[in-house]
Amino acid sequence: MSTATPEAPKLPPAWFKHAFWRAHRLLHRLSGGRFLWTPASKRGWGALRLTTTGRRSGQPRTVIIGYIEDGPNLVTMAMNGWDEGHPAWWFNLEAEPDATVRLAHERPRAVRARAATGDERDRLWKRWADIDTDLDAYAASRWAITPVVVLEPRETSPTEAGGTRPPPSNT
C-alpha cells in the first residue's frame, strides 16, 4: 500500500471555471431551473441553488453547488472549485447559517447549515469519494481542509414564508 499523496488531476484555469459557472447560472435562470442535475443522474450527485445572506452586505447571494442526499439532509463541500481558500458562500453560512435551497423541479426550502465533524465528516467524505474518485487528489492539492457542509431542513417563520405574523391572541 502506497502512502504517497495522489497527484491531483489537472484543473482548468480559474477564468474558465468562473466563465463556466456564470454560464451555468444564466442557463439556470433562463430555464427556470429545469437543467439542475439530480442525484439520480449518472454523476451520482445533484446540483442545487443555494441562497445565503451576504455576511457584509446583508443581501441575498445565490450560487449553484453540487450535493448528495443523506436522509433529510443535503450535503455539499465548500471546495471553491478546488482553488485555494473557501468560497464566499461558506463564509456567509458561517456568519448566518439559515439559508434557502432549491432543487430541480422543487419549491425553495429553508435549511440551516453546519460543518460536519468527526465520524460524520469521515462518513460523508467517503460517500463523496465513492462518487468522485479524484476527490482525495483534489483535496490534497489545497492547503485548507475542505469543509463538508450539512444543510438540515428547518421550519420557516411566517415572515420568511412570505406572510405576516398573526396578531397576538387575547387568551
Q: Gist?
A:
Helix content is 27%, strand content 25%. The protein is of the alpha+beta class and 171 residues long.
Q: Can you tell me about this structure?
A:
- This protein is of the alpha+beta class and 171 residues long.
- The chain has a single domain (14-153), classed as Electron Transport, Fmn-binding Protein, Chain A (Pnp Oxidase, Chain A, Roll).
- Helix content is 27%, strand content 25%.
- The protein has four helices and six strands; from the N terminus they run αβββαββααβ.
- Strands 1-2-3-6-5-4 form a six-stranded antiparallel β-barrel.
- The longest helix is centred in the first third of the chain and has 18 residues, at 14-31.
- The chain is globular, with a radius of gyration of 18 Å.
- Mean pLDDT is 80; it is low at 162-171.
Structural key phrases:
single chain, 171 residues, alpha+beta, Pnp Oxidase, Chain A, six-stranded antiparallel β-barrel, 25% strand, globular, disordered C terminus
Please outline the helices and strands:
Blueprint: H1 14-31, E1 46-53, E2 60-70, E3 73-77, H2 88-95, E4 98-102, E5 109-115, H3 118-131, H4 135-140, E6 148-153
Antiparallel strand pairs: 1-2, 1-4, 2-3, 3-6, 4-5, 5-6
- At the first level of CATH, the class is Mainly Beta
CATH topology: Pnp Oxidase, Chain A
Spatial separation of the terminal alpha carbons: 71 Å
Enumerate the spans where pLDDT stays under 50 for 5 or more consecutive residues: 162-171
- Roughly how much helix do the residues carry, as a percent range? 25-40%
In terms of DSSP E residues, the strand content is 15-25%
| CATH architecture term | Roll
pLDDT average, as an integer? 80
Looking at this structure, what is the CATH superfamily?
Answer: Electron Transport, Fmn-binding Protein, Chain A
Widest beta sheet: strand line-up: 1-2-3-6-5-4
Number of strands: 6
What number of domains? 1
Biggest beta sheet summary: 6 strands, antiparallel, barrel
Spell out the helices and strands N to C: HEEEHEEHHE
What class would the helix/strand composition place it in? alpha+beta
Which shape, going by the Cα principal axes? globular
User: What is Rg?
Assistant: 18 Å
